[in-house]
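Board notes (copied after class):
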Amino acid sequence: MDAPRILIVDDDQESRNLLSEVLQANGYAVGAVADGVAAREELRREGGYTVVIADLRMPRESGLELLRRLRQQKATQAMVLMSSFISASERKLAQELGAHALLEKPFRLAELLRVVGELAHPKPIAISP
C-alpha cells in the first residue's frame, strides 16, 4: 500500500523542512513548495496528493486563495490551513470554502499528525448487518 501523499505549502523554509521531516518520519510521502502558485503547479504536474497543508499568509498566493482556486477546479484534496493569526472573517471564509482544519501557530506536532491522520486515513462508516 502506498503512503498517503501530503503537500506542504509555506513560504518559510524552516517550517517546510520541519513539517516534511515529521510527516516523513510518520510514514507519509511529502512534497513541499513555497506558495499557492507553486502548489497549484505541483498538483497539476504530480497530482495524487491526499492532503494539502498551507500557510494562510504567503507571497504571490495565500492559503485562502489556493483553497478558493482548488475548490473552483473541483480538486478533492483535503485542505488544512495554518497561521499564527486567523481573523474571524478568514476563519469563516476558510470554513465556507471547505477547509478541513485550521491550525493556529504554534501548534503541537501531535495535533498536526492527528489531523493529517484523520484526513489521510478516513475510517469507514460502520454499517450494522
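Comment from the instructor: The first helix runs from residue 13 to 25. The chain has five helices and five strands.
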